[in-house]
Amino acid sequence: MNGKGRRTSSRQFPRSTPTAGSARRPAPARGGRPAAQQGEFALPVSTTPSLPAVTTFAELDMPAPLLAELTRQGVTVPFPIQGATLPNSLAGRDVLGRGRTGSGKTLAFGLALLARTAGQRAEPRQPLALVLVPTRELAQQVTDALTPYARPMRLRMTTVVGGMSIGRQAGALREGVEVVVATPGRLRDLVERGDCRLDKVAITVLDEADQMADMGFMPQVTAVLKLVQPGGQRMLFSATLDRNVDKLVRQFLTDPVVHSVDPSAGTITTMEHHVLHVSTDDKRAATIRIAARDGRVILFMDSKRAVDRLTRDLLAGGVRAGALHGGKSQPQRNRTLAQFKNGDVTALVATNVAARGIHIDDLDLVVNVDPPADHKDYLHRGGRTARAGASGSVVTLVLPEQRRDMDRLMRDAGIDPRTAQVHSADPELARITGARVPSGIPVTIAVPVPVAQPGSGSPASRAKRGRRRTGGGAP
Q: Which range, of 67-76, 109-118, 172-181, 256-265, averages the lowest pLDDT?
């Protein structure tokens, strides 16, 4: 046991069943700790002064191939969370970062992780760096975002998530990868099978730590942090910081550099918030008209059954809709997201499975058909739009009996929304959301048939190549 409370002996992971609704009520503030925002803990104070922030990537001590790739990608000016944390994370400091979705967190930790892993070669089954995330979609997003930068550094990456072939993931680990992006459950399975050892992991990132706590993953996350290399670097990023995250910070981060942006701040100038009061009888009609707008939209609902029902209604009415929820297989979810990104699907109907880790360029409208359970869910749903400084709107449809709870939620989120009473045929609804009457002509979203690309070979040969992880590939 060291000063961070880590030990390296192998142990079985705790078995807990993650659920989207397992968030715990925040514990009362402990004596001696200053008050924080509602439900959040007071940020720790660093005892070691932080290095000054930078305004350009060129000021950072990063490998030349990494800087060159940033230029090729058109990434020239760091976002605030990147400029503040990268000088310190590149120096090996632990980092605690709070910032809303779309603030640039992925490159904030990813560039430091890749730069500090450069030049090393992993042994079979023994990765050198780990990014732990709560959902499959976020794992894939992180992998996609970092792969262009890993490739010129000759760093191998793989993604370890449920819903995909565990045999293929084990095969990638056997061949050796420097960086693993994983969800807790599948990583637990691979460790227990002996397909992955974590004792050589020197850099560990927890992304969206608050959602991992809400989903019941905290025992597995704690177990992971006790298995990785003692004295290694820890970086924890989260949109909100609740009491469960506080436990991780106190136990596993040593004198971290702290960078915090209020999750509701930064949305005010780029994101409009609308609470639209609707009647029970008219809510369905209003929802369908919003979905029929000229442009993409994500519509959040509470249950898988409600998502499937609305998706069927939209398709029957002429709206190119797709459903996304935890009851879909991972290939189905990947396909639906790809269709939404390329425009084959214009209305994505989803449960909270899509509230994190889904990056869609130029998405300017998110609709809460069913209001979220709390302000954290609201912020994460809304984070699908107005990303990286772009503009967007978040619209919540509220029934009369939901008004009081919605008022409380907005106060907790620190948001003063624009409120209006609307009907499905009102010009005001059309002005805010682009709502219009759907065509009424049923549509079918075709399932794409894989087409072999030149030189791609047979499916068997493609599968073999999929098991060879070079240059940052992901399953």
A: 256-265
Q: What is the DSSP string of 198-234?
A: -TT--EEEEESHHHHHHTT-HHHHHHHHHHSPTT-EE
Rounded to whole angstroms, how far apart are CA atoms 48 and 284? Answer: 56
pLDDT of residue 149: 97
Question: Judging by DSSP bridges, how do beta strands 129-132 and 203-207 pair with one another?
Answer: parallel
Non-local (6+) Cβ contacts of 444 within 8 A are 315
Phi, psi angles (nearest 5°) of residue 260: -130, 130
Domain ranges in the chain with CATH number 3.40.50.300: 57-260, 271-433
Q: Which tokens is 427 given?
A: 């010009």
Reading phi first (left if > 0) and then psi (alpha if -120 to 50, else beta), residue 298 is in beta
* 357 closest CA partner among 140, 181, 158: 140
With CA atoms as reference, report the closest residue to 358 among 28, 101, 98.
101
Q: How far apart are CA 306 and CA 322, in angstroms?
A: 13
User: Up-side HSE of residue 424: CA atoms within 13 Å toward CB?
Assistant: 17
CB environment 366-385: b (16+ within 10 A), e (fewer): bbbbbbbbbbbbbbbbbbbb
Residue 30 DSSP code: P
Count the Cβ atoms, other than its own, within 10 Å of residue 168. Answer: 14
Q: Which of 361, 346, 364, 378 is nearest to 271 (CA)?
A: 364
Count CB neighbours of 72 within 10 A. Answer: 11
Structure tokens at 112: 């430091």
**CA separation for the pair 207, 362 (Å, rounded):** 23
pTM summary value: 0.65
Instruction: Classify 332 as helix, strand or coil.
Output: helix
For residue 283, what are its two tokens?
Answer: 């809510």
Question: With contact defined as beta carbons under 8 Å apart, do 90 and 62 qualify?
Answer: yes
Distance between CA atoms of residues 386 and 316, nearest Å: 30
Residue where the block lists tokens 């136990």: 251
pLDDT at 347: 96
Show Cβ contacts of residue 114 under 8 Å, excluding neighbours closer than 6 positions: 66, 146, 149, 150, 153, 155, 179
Task: State which H helix or E strand residue 453 sits in.
Answer: none
CATH number for the domain formed by residue range(s) 57-260: 3.40.50.300
CATH topology of domain 271-433: Rossmann fold (3.40.50)
Sign for the CA dihedral angle at 159, 162, 164, 166 comes to: positive
Please calculate the CA angle 12-16-21 and round it to the nearest 5 degrees: 155
Q: Residue 20: its pLDDT value, please?
A: 38
How far apart CA 81 and CA 98 sit, in angstroms, is: 9
- In this prediction, residue 438 carries a pLDDT of 95
What's the CA gap between 20 and 101, in Å, rounded?
18
